[in-house]
Design goal:
Length: 171
């Protein structure tokens, strides 16, 4: 056992980083880090509304935080996190729900239902305003999920037809 995470329905995620395993505890408002080298468990961040999705690059761990029907994306250093001072990546909260996060080290990609349509969006890892990357124009379907970024492309799974729906060149 790496540690004891408090269960929360629809809120926990796990990601592997550079020598660490990270997980979210939505009900406790924190992201936790387990060191693979020394076995220590530490808080990456505390005091979040409900962190529930994770992505990592070589330096940072990113998470989505949801509150009152909105979401935002934040980050912290993998090696030297300050639990009281996460950095905002998505600078303004957005109404909607996210289903997944991914990063290529330049952008954080996120998928879900936000605005009026199912979408995949992105924001620079250093922070900024989210931009639409793909929008299907349909409001009644299940939002895209299971993002992956590889070799200059973003892939996402469409639960509506159970296929990899699109291959979109990364900007």
């Amino acid at each position: 056992s790496l540690g004891s995470a408090t269960p929360s329905i629809g809120g926990n995620d796990v990601a592997l980083g550079q020598g660490y395993v990270f997980w979210t505890e939505a009900t406790n408002g924190r992201v936790v880090r387990y060191s693979l080298s020394d076995g220590k468990t530490t808080n990456v961040v505390t005091g979040q509304a409900a962190p529930y999705l994770l992505a990592t690059d070589t330096a940072y761990v990113y998470w989505a935080d949801r509150f009152n029907g909105n979401f935002t994306i934040k980050r912290a250093s993998q090696d030297n996190p300050d639990p009281a001072a996460p950095e905002n990546v998505l600078v303004a909260s957005v109404p909607g729900t996210l289903t997944t996060l991914a990063t290529d080290g330049q952008n954080v990609y996120y998928a879900g239902m936000f605005g009026r349509n199912d979408k995949v969006g992105y924001v620079l890892v250093s922070g900024g305003t989210g931009q639409p990357f793909f929008q299907d124009g349909v409001t009644t379907e299940v939002p895209p999920g299971l993002l992956a970024v590889a070799k200059g492309a973003v892939y996402y799974f469409s639960p509506n037809d159970m296929n990899i729906q699109a291959l979109v060149t990364v900007r």
